[in-house]
Design goal:
Blueprint (H helix, E strand, L loop, with lengths): L5 E5 L3 H12 L3 E5 L3 H20 L5 H9 L1 E4 L10 E4 L5 H14 L5 E4 L6 H6 L7 E6 L8 E6 L5 H13 L3 E5 L7 H17 L5 H11 L6 H8 L1 H15 L8 H8 L22
Helix pairs in contact: 1-2, 7-9, 7-10
Bound molecules: acetoacetyl-coenzyme A (CAA).
Length: 290
């Protein structure tokens, strides 16, 4: 395929917004699609504020910011993805949602377009099987916050061909990311390691080993991590952490991955982390710890 120029991003949540930002900053035209047009428009407003902060820190110029914003179009109709050379799906971590999206994507996009999922745990082979081009379906797993984190994990489904893999790696490099290749086994590499760490921190809290702050400061300073695991789970979203833990538990069939009851309880209460204003910590409207 010739160089990717137009990219579709499906889902205007925190991951979709970050992917749209790095793509637009890399000079691509971006169609940011969400079932709710207002969500897509709000995501672009928020992304504009993130770019303002970069301008204020003199990391980018006002012209670069304006150019990046001008390249992102908010949309809610799947048919608007027709010009895309590449689409990245960043919808909630539920298999039924992903299958529905990829079924639609395979109907509305050009047959040569690559269809990527930002899934953090769901089988790429299974997602690809509901499309008319499983050889062009691939996992492109970004880390949160997308503009800051250097890694993209690339996951090939069983039928994914070499050209799709190479194009996806090249695209990640245009975004200034380093890639690692992971096999299509639940959790891939990063979440196979991270989610048990977060889940264990929840068990530590559940069993009263320490307070939220003690557990976070203990891991942060004791292991030299940039943030504690409970704070990190608030950043990722507790619903997402639980969804991944459930996939690891069900698909790998090992009870060592069973989600902590406290994590389930927080999700049931709607304490989903930073995006909900409350998780293990509480947050103000700007997402800063209260
Ligand atoms: N665009 C570009 N740059 C941005 C930005 C944006 N939208 N938002 C922030 N930045 C930059 C800031 O300008 C700042 O740069 P300088 O240091 O050069 O000034 C830098 O990022 C750090 O920003 P902050 O000062 O606001 O924040 P911080 O220093 O407290 O760091 C953090 C915040 C980057 C989140 C850090 O705590 C961290 O790395 N935490 C761990 C994150 C992590 O582990 N993520 C992976 C989660 S796992 C995952 O995502 C996979 C999954 O499937 C669950």
């Amino acid at each position: 395929m010739s160089e990717i120029q137009t990219i579709g991003v499906v889902g205007a949540g925190q991951m979709g917004r970050g992917i749209a930002q790095v793509a637009a900053q890399a000079g691509l035209d971006v169609i940011l699609l969400d079932a709710n047009l207002e969500m897509a428009e709000k995501a672009i407003e928020r992304l504009g504020r993130a770019l303002d902060r970069l301008v204020a820190k003199e990391k980018i110029s006002a012209e670069v910011k304006a150019g990046a914003l001008a390249r992102i179009a908010p949309r809610s109709d799947y048919n608007d993805l027709a010009p895309c050379d590449f689409v990245v799906e960043a919808a909630p971590e539920r298999e039924d949602i992903k299958i529905e999206i990829f079924t639609k994507l395979s109907e509305v996009t050009k047959t040569e377009a690559i269809l990527a999922s930002n899934t953090s745990s769901i089988s790429i082979t299974k997602i690809g099987a509901c499309t008319n081009r499983p050889e062009k379906v691939i996992g492109m797993h970004f880390m949160n916050p997308v503009p800051v984190m250097k890694l993209v994990e690339i996951v090939r489904g069983l039928p994914t061909d070499d050209a799709t893999y190479e194009t996806t790696v090249a695209l990640a490099r245009r975004f200034n990311k380093t890639t690692v290749a992971a096999r299509d086994i639940p959790g891939f590499i990063v979440n196979r390691v991270l989610i048990p760490l977060i889940n264990e921190a929840c068990f530590a809290l559940y069993e009263g080993l320490g307070s939220v702050e003690d557990i976070d400061v203990g891991v942060k300073l004791g292991l030299n991590h940039p943030m504690g695991p409970l704070e990190l789970s608030d950043l990722i979203g507790l619903d997402t952490c639980l969804a991944i833990a459930n996939v690891l538990h069900t698909e790998l069939g090992d009870d060592k991955y069973r989600p902590c009851p406290l994590l389930k309880q927080h999700v049931a209460a709607g304490w989903l982390g930073r995006k909900a204003g409350r998780g293990f910590y509480t947050y103000d409207a700007q997402g800063k710890k209260a």
